[in-house]
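so my prof wants the structure for this chain in the tokens format not the other one, which i didnt know existed until like an hour ago. anyway here's the sequence
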Amino acid sequence: MSKKREYDEIPGCAIEAALNRIGGKWKGVFLYHLLEGTLRFNQLTRLAAGASPRMVIKQLRELEDDGLVSRKVYPVVPPKVEYSLTDEGRSLQPILLKLDLWGKVWMDRRGIVPVRSKA
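here's what i got, hopefully its the right format
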């Protein structure tokens, strides 16, 4: 029996379809930081402070399965794995940048300073 994916069922609307792809605690964070370029697994794990490596792998695999992220494994010891955005993933850039701006304004209005801020 094949594994059932969320998109095996028809979403109720386009917003539901989009949020099913990028929803999740870390997916948006990974996509946003991958806008800058290729990142290694450990770099992504550091961005997801408090997440287990298993959770990071799960979310990255889902992004890969959805065609938003590509994964490259190098045949070296220790293993080297790099992630980058696909063209489809890069198409999210305007949305991710708008979310970043909205989040900055929202935090600023409340006097919240992020733990790590993008320089």
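also thought this was worth mentioning. The helical segments are 14-22, 27-34, 41-47, 53-65, 87-90, 93-109.
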